[in-house]
């Protein structure tokens, strides 16, 4: 009886088995960093088969860069299909810490992406950025070309939505439809601004991806 009592006491004081934390949500609006660059914003989550990706502006990194969020590895930038001022896609390799979601922003979401139907000129459009949050305006023009130091980027959409540093790569939506990722602009949100996005369907087609949609 004395031995049994000792065994029972020993079992009671054993520490509980630690459980792994559930993967955190990751998607459009998530804050991204490379090793030495400034902060940028993820555009949209996308998939190819069972592999997950994030679409973002090339301001977020270059092919081969390791991308992080909240200090944890997200994945690696895939080979670029656009000029340096266009878009990149990040292959999500760390599925232990992250799970892709269709909501923007991933935590406390306001929009759940339902597809990628292109909105016309004059339609209302909203952008989410890690600096400015949600900002809205209208689509002013399409097929706009802008010349950057790295080259000319064509096929852009101009909007009346403002942006600030750190918003680069952030998602534009019209209703619950994905429109594009922020690649540049002028002005600021204290006065007024003009922004340009690269249509997301161009990126999806180039990389043979499907937008991640929810219900």
UniProtKB/TrEMBL annotation:
One GO molecular-function entry: serine-type endopeptidase activity
Q: Where is the Peptidase S1 domain?
A: 97-204
User: For this protein, what is the EC number?
Assistant: 3.4.21.-
Per the record, the GO terms for biological process are: proteolysis
Which range is the signal sequence, renumbered to this chain?
1-20
Keywords of this entry? Disulfide bond, Hydrolase, Protease, Serine protease, Signal
InterPro entries the record matches? Pept_S1A_streptogrisin, Peptidase_S1_PA, Peptidase_S1_PA_chymotrypsin, Trypsin_dom
- Hydrolase is among the record's keywords: yes
Instruction: Give a Pfam family name.
Output: Trypsin
Q: What class of enzyme is it?
A: hydrolase
Q: List the disulfide bonds.
A: 40-60, 126-136, 162-189
Report the family membership: Belongs to the peptidase S1 family.
In Swiss-Prot or TrEMBL terms, this protein is called Streptogrisin C
The scientific name of the source species is Amycolatopsis umgeniensis
User: Which taxonomic lineage is given here?
Assistant: Bacteria, Bacillati, Actinomycetota, Actinomycetes, Pseudonocardiales
């Amino acid at each position: 009886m004395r031995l049994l009592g000792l065994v029972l006491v020993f079992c009671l004081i054993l520490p509980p088995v630690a459980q792994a934390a559930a993967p955190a949500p990751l998607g459009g609006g998530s804050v991204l960093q490379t090793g030495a660059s400034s902060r940028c914003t993820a555009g949209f989550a996308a998939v190819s088969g069972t592999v997950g990706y994030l679409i973002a502006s090339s301001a977020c990194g270059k092919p081969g860069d390791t991308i992080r969020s909240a200090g944890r590895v997200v994945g690696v930038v895939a080979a670029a299909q656009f000029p340096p001022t266009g878009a990149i896609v990040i292959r999500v390799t760390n599925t232990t810490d992250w799970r892709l979601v269709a909501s923007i922003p991933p935590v406390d979401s306001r929009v759940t992406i339902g597809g990628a139907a292109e909105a016309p000129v004059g339609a209302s459009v909203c952008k989410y950025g890690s600096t400015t949050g949600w900002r809205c305006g209208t689509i002013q023009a399409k097929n706009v070309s802008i010349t950057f130091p790295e080259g000319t980027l064509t096929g852009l959409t101009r909007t009346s939505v403002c942006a600030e540093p750190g918003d680069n790569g952030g998602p534009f939506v019209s209703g619950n439809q994905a429109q594009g990722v922020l690649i540049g602009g002028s002005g600021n949100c204290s006065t007024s601004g003009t922004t340009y996005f690269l249509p997301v369907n161009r990126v999806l087609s180039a990389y043979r991806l499907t937008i991640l949609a929810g219900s």
